[in-house]
Design goal:
By secondary structure, this protein is an alpha+beta fold. About 30% of the residues lie in helices and about 30% in strands.
Length: about 90
């Protein structure tokens, strides 16, 4: 008997479900299925609780990891001390 279930691996952990859902949407645009595990969405109360694990098929891991690196590189925080925002207006 062979196991027909795909092997799943953890891609990354994120802080909350909102972040997880945003990333899942980006992965799905590239044809990569991502599943989330964990977190309790209490958006009714304006809170997300818990760490959320993003899981991919082992066969998609390399492509997903590369895309995650690209997403993180695009979203690095801006060092505002290096940005000229001009003079304040009165």
């Amino acid at each position: 008997m062979t196991d027909q279930q795909p092997k799943l691996v953890t891609l990354t952990n994120v802080a909350n479900e909102a972040e997880a859902k945003s990333l899942i949407g980006l992965f799905e645009e590239e044809g990569i299925s991502v599943f989330m595990n964990g977190g309790d969405d209490l958006s009714l109360f304006g809170e997300d609780l818990g760490d959320v694990m993003l899981i991919v098929k082992k066969s998609d891991y390399d492509q997903a990891a590369k895309l995650l690196q690209e997403i993180e590189a695009e979203n690095t925080e801006i060092d505002w001390s290096q940005v000229d925002v001009g003079e304040p207006e009165d």
